[in-house]
Amino acid sequence: MKTIFAVMMFSVVGFGQTAARVMTDRAAARFLDQATWGPTPESISELARLGIPDWLGAQFAAEPSDLPDQPMLDSAGKQNNNLGPVQAAFFANTVNGRDQLRQRVAFILSQIWVVSQVSVRPAYAFPPYWRIFRDNAFGNYRDIIKAVTLSPAMGTYLNVANNRKANAAKGTAANENYARELMQLFTLGLIELNSDGSPRMDAGHIPIPTYNQAVVTNLAKAFTGWTYPVAPGAVPRINNPPYYLGQMMAVEAQHDVTSKAIFHNITIPAGQAAEQDLESVLDALMAQPTMAPFVSRQLIQHMVTSNPSPAYIERVSQVFTSTRGDMKSVIIAIFTDREARSGDNPATPGSATYGHLREPVVFLSNLARGLNATIGPANGLNRYAAALGENLFNAPSVFSYFSPMSRISGGLFGPEFQIYSTQTAADRADAVNTAIYGKLDGSTTLDLSPFVARAANVDGLLDYISYVFMHSGMSRALAQAAKDAADAAATPRAKAQAALYIVLTSSEYQVIQ
Question: What's the predicted TM-score (pTM) here?
Answer without folding.
Answer: 0.94
